[in-house]
Amino acid sequence: MSFPATTRIARMAKTAARATDPLRRIVVSLDASENSVVLLQTVATWAAHWRAQLAGVFIEDVNLLHLSGFTFAREFSATFARERAITGDDIERRWRAHAAQARRTLQHAAGASGVEATFDVVRGSLESGVFGGVQHHDLVVMTDATTWRDANCIGCAVRRTALSSPSSVLLAGSVTATRTAPVVCLFDHSAGRTSALQLAAQIADIERRPLDVVLVGDEPTCTKLEIEVAMALEEFAPGYRITRMAQPDPAQLRYHACSMMVIPAQCCSMDERALQLFARAMTQPILVVK
Amino acid sequence: MTELARTALPASTLYTQCDLSQFTFDTTADVEDLAYFLGQQRALDAIRMGVGIKQQGFNLYALGPPGVGKQTIISRFVATHAAHAAAPDDWVYVNNFGLPHKPLALRLPQGRGGRLQRDMARLVQELRAAVPAAFESDAYRTQMQEIEQSSKEKQEHAFEEIKTKAESQGITLLRTAAGFAFAPVRDGSVMSPADFEKLPKSEQERFEKNIAGLQAELRRVIQKIPEWRGETQEKIDALNAEVAKAAVGFLLERIQNDYADLPNVVVYLNAVHRDVIANVDDFRGNGEDASPLAHAFGVRSSPLQRYEVNVVVDNGATQGAPVVYEDHPTYSNLVGRIEHVAMMGALITDFRLIKSGALHRANGGYLILDALKLLQQPYAWDGLKRALRSAEVRIESLEQMLSLVSTLSLEPECIPLNVKVVLFGDRMLYYMLYQLDPDFPELFKIAADFDDAVDRTPENTQMYARMLATLARQHQLQPLTRAAVGRVIEHGSRLISDAAKLTSHMRSITDLLCEADYWRDEAKRTYLDVMDVDRAIAAREERAGRMRALHLEHIARGTLLITTRGERVGTLNGLSVIGVGDNEFGGPVRITAVVRMGEGEVIDIEREVELSGPIHSKGVLILSSYLGATFSPERPLSLSASLVFEQSYGEIEGDSASATELYALLSALAEAPIRQGLAVTGSVNQFGEIQAVGGVNEKIEGYFEVCRVQGFTGQQGVVIPAANVKNLMLRADVVAAVREGKFHVYAVTHVDEGIALLTGIEAGARAADGVYPAGTINARVEARLLRMAELRHEFSSHDKDSEDGEDGGESD
């Protein structure tokens, strides 16, 4: 994501005029995937815009280390089901290579956006390594879509942890959005909906995308919400599009063409189970705002 | 009046003036244009017939000397004819989607080739907007996500089953960096190996057995994934095709309707339709080559370029049939070429780089070529013949044609050819082609033979004046006065060296008019007058006169020994023409003859030293025959004579000095001195008749200059063949000198006349008794030859007696 320098400076000046920036630290769980590179470039731009600290974390998952200790353990490649034994040396070697790659990616993205970044390698679980110590003003970015999306128990644990974390969480998507795809924000009676909406508006502004606001509720509710949206966005977005949805329909939301879905964490339209299923099925990035 | 002057040609015969009273105009501004050059009726009739015959092989060759206006006449005639013909169709090359290396040629009615090109460019632009819009629509994205989700759910369902089964057995499915693995789990985390070791042996074995079973199931599922992906891709392709069809259908239908009357274009557009749908992704990017290498090398290419239309023949603005003159008829300029562009170190090409040749542009019309230029270009003649024989233009590079390279290149579809080719060149080239190339008579059946001269009749003189008026207007020259017209006409006779002819060498006349107009402008005259023409002619001679002046100087300073006074035996001034570039001038050369007793040989010293051309040698042999036949028919010619061009150091060719050499020989034999004031030209036959020669005007004027330098005596002049009198168009100063009796021109028909003129002694005719009158030249020659024969006989008798005596002595 890149912008003309003059535009960026103008936006930064506009942001500086605001009392507080929405996020202070962006913690990125890094891997070496291509999605990770794209998402990292995006959040580096955000970090520059919000003057937030960028912290990269590479997790050496101990579960894998345990796995390598079993003589019967076999790894099957995802493409051809090629079978091979797993050893501790293999795991360590892969970690070193991936960590080095992740560090380079982080440095490149941070350098391009003019932000400072830290990089740490943590051995343990994803839950403790990434979410340990995060606060309300942080944004955790899970770049490895497969880890948190896959339907295995470890992934589910991570997803649960992510959704229950005090920080906002950005879960990477598996597809790349088109240039004109909008940022979509779910707006219902949830607590924190205004923060989520304003964050979505800022992201849309940074990425020069349209903003779609999906109002959830009956007609009178939606009318009130629409007024609320107008007031909340008065400062942020010059234009946006409103879509009304009587009942929360994760399937309909899921197929909504967008570059990113922004939802408040305490979304009253979806319970935790529904949110988990939604997060698992969604192919675009999801930003859960606390 | 002297004795010589009395037998000389009158001044009036030396220059045939143009009768200005026949002209009714004051200047050529009042004179009508002449449509074609004068005197080329034969050629025009041939061209008319050649142009009129439509069958194959009736192409034209216009032959004639350079400068007679062949190209101008042909161009003008053909252009007039072509203007009434229908303009031919357009031709375009388009991509062959099935076989891209064989581009297709499409024929379209006049002007619609360019329109198709614009329509296709607009179509691509519209598709570049319509296709992405269709593929970014919510409907498409939703359907796409449904397909992907369906595929994903299918996979996840399979994994879910394994995962559920694994969980029921206390086993978890882990996602590793490269794939999947199973591990025993406790409290939501992978059991450590140490904890596993603490399990009972049976429990461990159960885990291992269960994991082995799960691994087998996982393997089956993963192996199924490519199949599922294939199914998903098929669905995506079908969706893409459906969306593409909807997006492009209307646009393509519109253009197909526009060209519904052209079946070949409709076939092409159908192929475009299919290709667009099959390659719809090409319209979803930015339309440029997205490969990193292409970007790295700054190469701009686009897959959409295959929908472009290459108009190789655009007759949109053509009125009538095309008339194309190709000034540089190389092989590729004739049949077209396939260009290449360098891309990342390789040379690549496609149908867009096909360039038309002159044959393409002239198709349906006329192609005019300079035969010499055509033959000078490697393989151009072969290429032209092949195209005419096959009646189609095939574009292939020389390398391909000669099988020098075997790399894959384009093979554009051939274009049917219907062209009338008009070659022009000199006669020699025509005859050589006719004799040496068997294809030539088959392909160029019409010869248009251009004359280089026209009879100087009153009618033609009038036409000539119109032609001068036309040339003046064509070249933006001021009109000529009546006198100037007359002077140019007279010069036209001089150029052709014939008082009864006019040159049709238009380039010379045009050049003269341009130069005369320059002098007119210098003199600030309104009309181009006779003074300007005279000035131009004089200036031209002056410009080219360095060699002539040098030659004269050498004579004046005695370096070249030429005498124009007195009398000498066996010495005579011959006349020769010296050619330097395009300038020729005449001058005298001393020819001498010496005789002695011998065995009948006349030695031509020039031939002995190989400075004599065959025609000159022939002349010497002829005069030898004349001598023998005339003076010694019944006796051996006991003469040994030698002839030489004194102070001549270059090759001598031509027989125009044979009469001179004979006169020198007769003088030497008769010991009759020759008047050195007379110079001679003419060839002689075996009967002593004097025959015409070339360059008579230049020769006379050259000798006149020498006499002027050495001083006129009133006894000087030139003896020319009577047959050359009609060629006389001498300079005004020569004519004036003749009129004043300072210089003379004599015309003779027989050697006897010439020798009498040169020696002042009658040649003499044999009387009834076969004897020449005493004292005549012929009598003296015969007597000398007889004496030589007797002497020779004496010598031979003495020799024989001596030999006999010696023989007898021996026998005694």
Brief digest:
Chain A is of the alpha/beta class and 290 residues long. In chain A, 44% of the residues lie in helices and 22% in strands. Chain A is globular and about 65 Å long.
What's the structural blueprint in terms of helices and strands?
The complex is a heterodimer of chains A (290) and B (812).
Chain A lengths: L4 H12 L8 E5 L4 H17 L2 E9 H7 L5 E4 L5 E3 L2 H26 L3 E8 L1 H6 L6 E5 L2 H5 L3 H12 L3 E4 L11 E5 L5 H15 L3 E6 L2 H14 L8 E5 L4 H5 L5 E5 L7 H10 L4 E4 L1
Parallel strand pairs in A: 1-2, 1-6, 2-5, 6-7, 8-9, 8-11, 9-10, 11-12
Antiparallel strand pairs in A: 3-4, 7-12
Helix pairs in contact in A: 2-4
Chain B lengths: L2 H5 L33 H12 L7 E4 L6 H14 L6 E5 L9 E5 L3 H24 L2 H31 L2 E5 L3 E8 L2 E2 L2 H6 L2 H58 L4 H16 L13 H5 L13 E4 L9 E3 L5 H5 L1 E2 L2 E3 L2 E3 L5 E2 L2 H5 L3 E5 H6 L3 H11 L1 E2 L4 H4 L13 E2 L3 E6 L1 H10 L2 H5 L2 E4 L3 E3 L2 H17 L7 H15 L4 E3 L2 H17 L7 H14 L2 H11 L10 E3 L1 E10 L2 E15 L3 E4 H4 L5 H18 L7 E7 L12 H13 L2 E3 L2 E3 L2 E2 L5 E2 L4 H15 L5 E6 L10 H8 L3 E6 L2 H9 L17 H35 L1
Parallel strand pairs in B: 1-16, 1-17, 8-13, 13-16, 21-26, 23-24, 26-29, 29-30
Antiparallel strand pairs in B: 2-3, 2-7, 4-5, 5-6, 9-12, 10-11, 14-15, 18-19, 20-25, 21-22, 22-24, 27-28
Helix pairs in contact in B: 2-3, 4-7, 5-7, 7-8, 18-20, 19-20, 21-25, 23-24, 24-27, 24-28
Helix content of chain A: 40-55%
Average the pLDDT over all residues of chain B and give the rounded result.
88
Ends of chain A: how far apart? 25 Å
Q: Strand percentage of chain B, roughly? A: 15-25%
The assembly state of the depicted protein chains is heterodimer
Rough outline of chain B: elongated
Give the strand line-up of the largest sheet of chain B: 23-24-22-21-26-29-30
Low-confidence stretches of chain A: 1-20, 148-155
**Strand segment tally of chain B:** 30
Q: Helix share of residues of chain B?
A: 40-55%
- Whole-angstrom Rg of chain B: 48 Å
What kind of sheet is the major sheet of chain A? 10 strands, mixed
> What is the CA–CA distance across the termini of chain B?
76 Å
Largest sheet of chain B: 7 strands, mixed
**If you average the pLDDT of chain A, what whole number results?**
76
Silhouette of chain A? globular
